[in-house]
Every structure is written in structure tokens, then in C-alpha cells.
Amino acid sequence: MKVSKKNPSKNLKIFLFFAFCLYLISSCKSSQPIQNTDNGNNTATATTAPQQDLVKDVINSFSSTSPQMLLPAGADPNSDDWKGVDLEAKKPVIPLYASEEAKHFLLPPGYRIEPVLTEPAIQQPGAIAFDGNGRMYVLELRSYMLTADSKDELEPTSRISRWEDKDNDGVYETGTTFIDNLIFPRFVLPYGKDCVLTMESDADNVYKYTDTDGDGKADKKELFTNKYGRSGNVEHQQAFMYWGMDNWLYSTVNAFRVRETPGGVIREKTGFNRAQWGITHDDDGKLWFQGGASGLPSYFQFPIHYGNFEVANEFAKGFDIPYGAAVKISDMQGGMDEIRQPDGSLKRVTGSAGNDVYRGDRLPESLRGQYFYGEPVARIVRQINPVVKEGLTTLHNVYQDQQSEFLRSTDPLFRPVDMATAPDGTMYIVDMYHGIIQEGQWTQKGTYLRTKIEQYQLDKVVGLGRIWRITYDGKERDKTKPKMLNEKTSALVKHLEHPNGWWRDAAQQLIVLRKDLSVAPALEKMALTSPNVLARMHAIWALEGLNALKTETVQKLLSDANPRIRVQALRAGETLYKEGKKELEASYKAALSDANTDVAVQAMLSHKFLKLPDLEANIKNTVEKNLAAGVKLVGAQIITPPRPTRGLGIMAELSKDQQEMLSRGAVIYNELCSQCHGNNGMGTPAGDGKLLAPALAGSARIQSHPEYAIRVILHGMDGAIEGKTYAGGMMASMKEQPDQWVADIVSYIRNGLSNDASLISKDLVANIRQKTADQTGMYQYDKLIKLVPHELQQREGWKVTASNTASTRIGGNVSPISAFTYEGWSTGVKQEKGMWYQIEFPKETAVSEIQFNSAAMVKRGWVPKPNTPPGQRPMVQTHPRMYIIETSSDGINWQQSLSSQKGNDGDNVIALNPKKAKFIRIKLDQGIDNPEDDIPWTMKQLKIFELN
Fold first, then answer.
1. Which of 2, 123, 616, 696 is deepest in the core (most CB within 10 A)?
2. Contact 548, 517 (CB under 8 A)
């Protein structure tokens, strides 16, 4: 049956006059509550500062009359796809000023909502974060969906701004553009004083930006870590770099975590978090990841670094049903089947963004520990109650019985995309206030969603955005202004006792970043004796972050009366065990018999993570004695890990030969190298702040070209390294060892010590041994570094092109430069002779080596049956079958620099005779002959090396 909707808009001219009057009124600050008694909910104070009239500018961009809607070309009005769809002409959805939008919010009784920052100061906010002085950094995604075709989405027009409430009236009135001209930045993480970490879309490097002169604008840019990104649809790339309580940095999508150490940034593999936009943690430090397209939280049962555990029924019945207010316009991607009639709201969650476990102190106590996340398609913020029973968590929608949500809006432009516990103890909601919330891939011409976008002119509502504060009657926001960046480290320790989790997190992070060991005694006392259990947890992890946590302290904490403290001791003790404190093994085994289910489960997880001796036997024994559901599930899945059935991809597994190589390398390292370089590769302390030998974990030297490490092992090294001396003195030559032995140990230190670099072959060792046969004596670092190829990290000014590139984004192709990223580049079509991949350098460059990985992929067009194991998926090899290397000085006249070579599945290393050229390209010398083999050419983690 055709759905007819009554047009709610008045005559457009009258509306504009009315909106303009409201604008004049709202230009003055107001403290009067705005009441709305719809469904027993009420809203709150709408306080807004004077603003330029961006809202009016948007209204003026609308067509004077909405066009008569027609079916897309070729569409059948009688088909099921269009049956019941209202295609009548409509007036546009008009944006409202913040004061008017506030009237459309529906909150439970007692709650109030007010704007703290709005357009034009900010535009299209996507996330917020606070530094130690309470200044708010706003991720402004100014290029997001400016048209229905996502035109210019990767233009460098986005920014990160920083805002302060200097007069302490609750409104952030003073701001600066901290970083400008960004390409759709993925996150903002405050990282100490006047410093943030961020990265751009379709990029691979995370950078540290610092304001060194105090003008509120970053003027220093440093590489923080690489191999962090991927390319493709902007909704599918990594986001939300997040500092966990365990002092590791996590992000969505990526199945690894990173951490800065004195020797560099190290990384460890984790489980798949299956998240897209949102990470937070609870008071016990457990991370909560937020899915995107699923509309549901993605992983939350156990800390992600223990891997994935599949838990049935982790969402209560009916959890996937949202209860948004009547938005009327029915602009949901899924079409009429996903729309609740007659109000036009969403009837099944379909997209989610942003999350927060509320840990503040200025909202009702009943909210503490509750999980909140946004559903911008449904225009709601959900409050979720995590119920833990026998070690397993089930999520319940708090307002499901009332068929409602914590926060709803009847304004179709309300788009909650992030939320956070704020320094003032309340909760902030980031509202992009935008017409379209799906990326261009889902708004193509001819789709139901595109039809609705054009019917209501939603594509015209761009460039706006608000950040809201939620308060509660009788609980005034905390007006104490944080000044942690200016305080002594000893003062930060006191903040670990603060009732607001934001203060505790910020204080812990700054203590760890400062590396001030003078506070270690106070932290240890707090960890062992404080009556505040939350302060004790943070003190434990502050000690861990300072590398000041003692084995005897962990053992005392493992006997603590509070099971929450015992759990933290097990987690923090993992760092010590990895450093070689094997005396903790008995404590971990004893914890398996703990009467508390959570402690027993944690002991099993730690056993798995640390690969403790007799793992399977100990786990089986625990499961036999403990009947708790969580113990049985974790035990069973440790012994027989579940096959991944969903997620964003399956990582390539090492071959049997590669696994054996790493195992042999681990034996060599632990028997010979660990005494000086440390059990975990972080270097063995030698007193006075010195190390016996340089750290290998996180070392850029080790992870760059393997020739550096091979030369050092073959011939040794003496003297300072990058100006730094070590107490252990020289590194002895080991050239008497066979090539396979050298390959094993170099492969292990490049891949097995929190590093992520390629393995090497004994043939490469033999080649370098022969090349360096005339070397006499040990190397000096300054001379050696000039002899080995170095990777060209900075690619500013490079022009990267290809004959073919897979299109994965509406409105344009992914740039071929994505070959340098973690995700990679593809021709998108079958390999054919003559296809090429080309780099033009700003100046002539002598390329000595090219490295890339061509990973196997599932055969295109193959449709899996439900729960098909990964091992049964038909895979094809995407490496170039045959290729040549060509160089040119002008891009017109080409010379062949390498004869025809055969590509390899996996890693490809192309050694060249260095010759300066402005252009270099890889060109296929053979295609795929079989017409049925539709196999593209792919490359990822491309590296270009030159000699000094």
C-alpha cells in the first residue's frame, strides 16, 4: 500500500522568517530550560553563543521548490523494490539552530542537554578528545559527504581544532586550528603537552604533531609509527587510536596494538576487533569496540590482546531493535523493509558510531559503568547495561521495555557520531548534524537511499555540527579546570584517586609519558594500600608504564582480598614475565584455582598469552574443577580456537618452514642474545640509565633493510650508535655461523620481538656474506649505515600512477599510492602484458631495491556457504607472473633496468644496480593466459630503497 505522508513544513518564506527571528533570539545566551513533555521525556537548557549564520546559508542553498520525484531510470514502479515508497514532492529538511534543535531531543526525566560548541566555530565534527588541561580537540571531517556522490572527499580540507572554556561558563569560546589541510584524518589522540597523534586516510604513517611555541598551532611534525593504515572506503579504514589503561595504543580495524618505548614503537598482534568507529574502556581497563555497519558493539567480552572468543547470545533478545523518534522521512539505506511505519524510523540497527563507558561523577550513579553508543541512522544514543554472569557478558538495552532509548531526536539531521566522559564529569555528545550519514558507495544513483536524499535535498545540509553536554538536575558540572600539563608529576599521582575516570586516565598517561621515576614509591604505596580500588588499578598500570613494577609487588597483589586487584596483577604481571621474571609462573598457575570466576578466567587468558608450560594440561584441569560457564568457554576455545567466521579479513599464516625458522631463531635469541638485548628485546638495564646493548624491539634499523642486521651479525659492531653508547661495548662477529643460522636469528628479531618486518632467506645471507668478504674488523655505525640501502620514508612530491587501479570508492579510484599501505593496491582486473605501476620522484633517485608483498586472495565471484572454514576457500595467487623494471629521465624514453623476472607469492625483493632516474616502473611482461583465471595483480607494503 502506498504510504502517504502529510507535509509538516509551512510555507518556505514564512519558515525562513521564523527561523531568522529564532536566530536573533538564540544569539543571546539563555539559561531557561526548554521543556517537552512528548512521551514523558523532557529536554533541557539550550545555551548557545552568538554565531555566524551558516544555518541560513544552508537554507538558502535549497531549491525554491522541491522537484517532483520520479522513479530512477529503468525502475519498475510495480516491483517489490518500490512498492509502497512515497515519491511525492517534498519540501526540504530544514536545518535548525542549536537552540531549536534542542527542542527536538527526548531524554529521560531529570536530564538536560545544552550545546558547548557549534558551527561556525567547528564544522562536521567526527570525534573529540581532551588533553591534560581539559582542552578539547575536535576532529573536523570537513570533506565528508559534501555531495551524494562523495565528491572531493579526499581533498585536504579537514582539520583538527583545539578549544578552551577560558571564562569557565560551560561554553568553549576560544579555539585555534591545531592542524590544518588534512586528508580525512582518522583520529586525534592527545599525547602529552601540546601534542597529538593523528594520520590521514589512504595513508600508512601515524605522525606526532607538536606546538613548540605555544601559539595553539602545531609547528613540528614527526613520524610516530608506520605500517598502520589501509586504503579504500573511508568508513572501512582504521580509526580511533586509543590509549588503553594497559599503556598500549589500540585502533579499530587493525589486529595489533602499538606502544612507544625508548627503543622505538613496538607492536603486538591482537585478535580481530571487527570495529569501525569507536573504542573506549571501563573502570577495569577492558576495551570496548564499536561496530559500524552491524549497528552493534563488536568486541567486548575479554581484552582483545588475548585473541578472539566466540560467545553465543551476548546480546539480549531484541537488542538489535532501535526505538528512535518519528523522523518521518524514511531515509534508511535498507529501504522500506527496514523502516517502521507510520513514523518512518529505523526498525533494525544498521549503523553505529562512537562509544563511551560512562565513568564520570556528575550524572546519576546508576549511569556509572553503563555503555553508550550512537546510532546516527536512527538518530539515537543508546544506554546499554552490561550484565556479567559466570564470567560472560550479556548486553541489555536499558530502555527496551519502554520501547525507547536514552537520547532520541525528532530532528532528522541529528547525527550522534561520538561521545565521551568529559573533564567536568558529564557526558558530551558529538553531533555531526548532517544530511547524509552513509558514504557515497551506498548513495549511488538509482538506489532507494539516493531517491530519498534528492526528495528531501539532504545533500544540501553540510558544513554544520554541534557538541552537546548532558547534565542532570541537582548535579552541577564540575567547574574545576584541569591543569595537569603544568603540574608536577607528584601532583598527578593524587589525581589517580579522582572519582571521574577521565581525570584518572589523563593523570596516568602523563605520568607514564614523563618517565619520572621519583613517583614510583608513592605509586607502589597506593597500589598496595589505598582504600580506593580504582586508584590502586591506575597506580599498578602507572608503575608498569614506568617500568617500575616489581615482581614482589605483583606477587603481593595476587594475594589481595579484592578479586579485581588480583585480575589487574595478572594482567600487569604479563609484562614482567615477558621480560624474563619466570618466578611468576607458579603464581599464574596458582591463580587457575582461584575461587573467583573472573580471576580464574583471567589466569587462563594469561596462560594463553604467555604460552606458559603445560598450557593444555593446566587448562583442562581448571575446566574440570570449575563449572562456571565463562571458565568452560574460555578453556575450550583456548584448547580448540574457533575459526574466524566474520571480520574484516583473515591474516596470512606463516608456512611450516617459516614457523620452524622463527622457532629456531627464538632458541638462538634466548640462549645467546637475550642477556644483553633483554628477554623482550627492550635491552638489559646496566645502571645509570644505560643499557647493555641497544633495544631491538621497535627498532627502525632492524625493521628497515635486512642487510644492516646481516652485516652486523657477520662482522660485528663497535662504538656509538646514533650517538648513543652502551655498557656492553662491542657486538662480536659471528661469521663462523652458517647462513641458515644467521637467517634464522635475523628473521626472528625482525618478526618476533614486537617487530613487523619480512623474514629473510639463507640465500640472501650468502649473497651478503660474499659481497662483504673483504670486510676486516668490526663496523662503525656511521660508516655501516652508508653501505646499506635505506628506505625512502617521505613520499611528499612523489607522483604515483598505474595503468589500472581497482575502484572501491564512488566518485573516483583509490590512488595507486595505496600500494605502500597495509591494505594495498590492485589492478582490479585480470593481469595483462603491458600493465604498469610507476613512480615519478621530485628529483633523480638511485633506487637500489624494491620490496612488496603480493598476498593470496579469495577467488573473485566465489560465493561462500555459511560458516565455510577459511581453509576451504578457493584462493588465487595475485603476484605478477613475469615483470621487468624500466627507468626514465623524462617519462617518455625508457630503459630496461632488469630483465624479465618471475614474481613470487608473498614477499618480492627486487635488487637493482643503482642508477639515477626520475621515473621507475614495474611492467608486466606476461599476463594470465587462461581466460577463466580472473586474477588481478596486487601489491601492498611497497618499499623503495636507495643507497646513501
1. 696
2. yes
Tell me where in the chain the CATH 1.25.10.10 domain(s) lie: 484-639
* Structural contact between residues 866 and 844, judged by C-beta atoms closer than 8 angstroms: no
8-14 LR contacts (CB < 8 Å, sep 24+): 8/328, 9/91, 9/94, 12/64, 12/91
In DSSP terms, 380 is beta-bridged to 375, 408
* Pure H helices in 717-788: 739-751, 762-771, 781-784
E-strand ranges in 427-575 read 427-431, 466-472
For residue 874, what pLDDT band results from cuts at 50, 70 and 90? confident
CATH fold label, 656-788: Cytochrome Bc1 Complex; Chain D, domain 2 (1.10.760)
Which fold is adopted by the domain 799-946? Jelly Rolls (2.60.120)
Question: Residue 69: what pLDDT?
Answer: 56
Place of cell 618466578: 583
pTM (two decimals): 0.82
938 three-state secondary structure: strand
CATH superfamily of 12-472: TolB, C-terminal domain (2.120.10.30)
3-state class (DSSP) for residue 366: helix
pLDDT in tens, 620-655: 999 999 889 999 999 999 998 875 443 333 344 677
- Which has more pLDDT, 294 or 653? 294
Span 208-226, pLDDT tens digits? 999 999 999 999 999 999 8
* CATH annotation of 484-639: 1.25.10.10
Q: How deeply is 876 buried, as exposed, middle or buried, from its count of CB atoms within 10 A (0-12, 13-18, 19+)? A: middle
Using DSSP, how many helices (H) and how many strands (E) does the chain show? Answer: 21, 42
**Lowest-pLDDT choice from 60-69, 378-387, 688-697:** 60-69
Which residue spans of the chain are classified as CATH 1.10.760.10? 656-788
List where CATH 2.120.10.30 sits in the chain. Answer: 12-472
Q: What is the DSSP string of 556-572?
A: HHTT-S-HHHHHHHHHH
pLDDT digits 0-9 by tens, 47-86:
334 446 889 898 888 876 555 556 677 677 777 777 778 8
Which residues have CB under 8 Å from 465's CB, separation 6+?
A: 118, 119, 122, 123, 124, 125, 140, 430, 431, 432, 433, 434
pLDDT value, residue 814: 61
The grid coordinates of residue 443 equal: 548513495
Distance CA 170, CA 362 (A): 14
Angle of helix 629-639 versus helix 615-625 axis, rounded to 10: 160
